Amino acid sequence: MLLFLLQIVTSTTAVRQASYEVFWYTHHLFVVFFLLLFVHGFGGVIKHQVNLDTHFPGCNSMKINGSTIGDTGNVTWCSQKPIFEADKPEAWMWCMVPLFLYAMERLIRGVRSFQKVEIIKIVDHDDGVLEVQMKKKNFKAVPGQYVYVKCQEVSKFEWHPFTLTLCPSAEDFTFSIHCKILGDWTERFAHHLLHTPAEERQRPSEDEKHSTRYSKIKIVIDGPYGSPCTDVFSYKVSVCIATGIGVTPFAAIMNDLRLKITSRSPVKLRRLYFVWVC
After folding, report:
1. Of 11, 151, 216, 253, whose CB neighbour count within 10 A is largest?
2. Are 104 and 190 found together in one domain?
3. 44-63 pLDDT per residue, tens
4. What is the DSSP string of 166-231?
């Protein structure tokens, strides 16, 4: 319960905005939580009655000095006192399958950590938005999907999700993400990519916008993973509503739709309503 309460407190908005790492590390105490959940049943706190045939519900077993108390005309006496035994631990039966799936997912992510990611371009946009264009061997994605990004120079263990704003195609294998600088991790990430502290960074000139030292920057990508946005092209009419930086999945959708129209590819979508609230 203490671990659970600690995770709840550090999940609040105030803590996450002040230090995302505190939230991230305490959230992974769930491993200890499940280990304790597996063994707590061995204490035998929860018990069940094993002699219901000789001490069934409603019978009375109260006696003093071998005699019954009060009027015994309507009392049914038990032939034996209730006997209780501890229940067998069963928590592991319910948790092993999802934990196994989680472990497999982490294993796959670990394998993908060794796959090389080539950074093509870095663009520092207005309003604290960073664009990173990359290439990765055998990477395939569709509009609306997202990836997890880790930069070991920023944090050795943290993975952060970013929606793809540009998906690879048969002609161009480049894909991109847009990162809004909001917290400590994104500030350090932008600092590492641009080699300039976030608080000292000024808007660069057109000639300075693109960094040239990409070979020294190493990031790893896990994904892609699906989201409801991938279903936009499955209907004749779709409505897309975005707020602020939440426009990122729709950027990829708009770009893909433009490519489909110019290449005259068959598209089920006939009308798209796009609302962007800023």
Report:
1. 253
2. no
3. 777 888 888 888 887 776 55
4. E---SS---EEEEEE--SHHHHHHHHHHHTS-TTT--PPPTTTSS-S-GGG---EEEEEE--GGGG
In this structure, of 23-32, 72-81, 162-171, the range with the lowest mean pLDDT score is: 72-81
Paired tokens of 261: 């129209």
Domain-located, residue 49 = no
> pTM for the whole thing?
0.66
CATH number at residue 190: 2.40.30.10
Nearest Cα neighbor of 223 from 159, 148, 151, 117 is 148
Rounded Cα distance, 87 and 46, in Å:
6
**Residues 165 and 248: beta-carbon distance below 8 Å:** yes
Is residue 124 a contact partner of residue 209, using CB atoms and an 8 Å limit?
yes
Residues 125 and 92 occupy one common structural domain: no
Q: Are residues 134 and 181 in the same domain?
A: yes
Determine contact, residues 176/119, Cβ cutoff 8 Å.
no
Q: Could you list the residue range(s) of the whole structural domain that residue 261 is in?
A: 113-277
Q: Are 132 and 193 in contact (CB under 8 A)?
A: yes
Q: Is 142 helix (H, G, I), strand (E, B) or coil?
A: coil
- Could you tell me if residue 9 is inside a domain? yes
Both 94 and 224 in one domain: the answer is no
Residues 6+ apart with CB under 8 A from 260: 267
Residue 76 lies in a domain: no
**DSSP 8-class letter at 246:** G
